């Protein structure tokens, strides 16, 4: 009997070599002969039917970035409701191929993702049927990453990506199309929420909560150091405090450029209005 490699036609030296079989990979950093089997090992949802469903999809995966996963609920953080869906940070992060000397399997740690509760969770067979149909459909947009289960309610939850648009350019971090002009909601909110502090934990947490669900670069809420304001002038009294005008030295956020070549920038030294919050010094 003749035995041959059914993936031989897909092997390409530019995809790098498989560390397991030492042959060229069938797609970037992915060996269809070896990697699906490794991906399907070492995890469980605690439910055999779910495990079998996800492992079937994993064993058919032809690309590293398309692997469907069971995502433990404790690997999700900062879950916030936005409309009918939820946003969260996936601590392990979405799969990413990095190109250094050769393609390498990697992740985008603490990736922003979307969650949708499957309210018909009691009918597991129906959920898994719809889940497989969604994964296998040609129009798999936005991309589905996998399933998780809320440990407090036992409801199953779909974990998936944001809508992405070619005309918004590509994210320099994950190399995928942005979700808005010069903005990737998977990567950018986490970067914006780092590297600053008001000096007050409650204020930081409040602002970061808004930052982590920001959908556009221009809409980012910030902590603005007082020394970045200039030319303060009182212009009136509001219902709850005094109103001032000032020059914000850093300026407001804007996106400039055309089509896929959008660039983030600021309008230097723009005028802003300020309103005091009487009694706030006693709160903090």
UniProtKB/TrEMBL annotation:
State what protein this is by name: Protein kinase domain-containing protein
């Amino acid at each position: 009997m003749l035995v041959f490699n059914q993936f031989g036609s897909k092997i390409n030296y530019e995809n790098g070599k498989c560390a397991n079989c030492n042959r060229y990979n069938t797609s970037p950093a992915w060996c269809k002969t070896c990697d699906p089997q490794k991906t399907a090992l070492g995890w469980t949802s605690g439910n055999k039917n779910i495990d079998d469903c996800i492992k079937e999809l994993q064993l058919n995966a032809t690309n590293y970035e398309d692997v469907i996963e069971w995502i433990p609920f404790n690997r999700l953080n900062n879950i916030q409701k936005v409309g009918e869906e939820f946003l969260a940070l996936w601590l392990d992060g979405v799969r990413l191929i990095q190109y250094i000397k050769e393609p390498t399997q990697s992740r985008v740690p603490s990736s922003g993702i979307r969650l949708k509760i499957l309210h018909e969770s009691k009918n597991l067979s129906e959920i898994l049927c719809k889940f497989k149909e969604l994964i296998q459909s040609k129009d798999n947009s936005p991309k589905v990453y996998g399933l998780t289960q809320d440990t407090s309610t036992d409801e199953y939850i779909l974990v998936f990506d944001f809508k992405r648009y070619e005309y918004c350019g590509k994210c320099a971090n994950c190399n995928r199309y942005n979700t808005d002009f010069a903005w990737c909601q998977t990567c950018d909110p986490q970067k914006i929420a780092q590297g600053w502090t008001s000096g007050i934990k409650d204020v930081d947490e409040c602002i970061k909560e808004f930052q982590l669900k920001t959908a556009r670069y221009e809409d980012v809420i910030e902590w603005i150091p007082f020394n970045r304001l200039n030319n303060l002038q009182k212009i009136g009294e509001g219902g709850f405090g005094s109103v001032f005008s000032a020059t914000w030295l850093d300026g407001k956020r804007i996106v400039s450029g055309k089509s896929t070549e959008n660039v983030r920038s600021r309008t230097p030294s723009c005028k802003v209005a300020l309103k005091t919050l009487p009694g706030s010094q006693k709160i903090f």
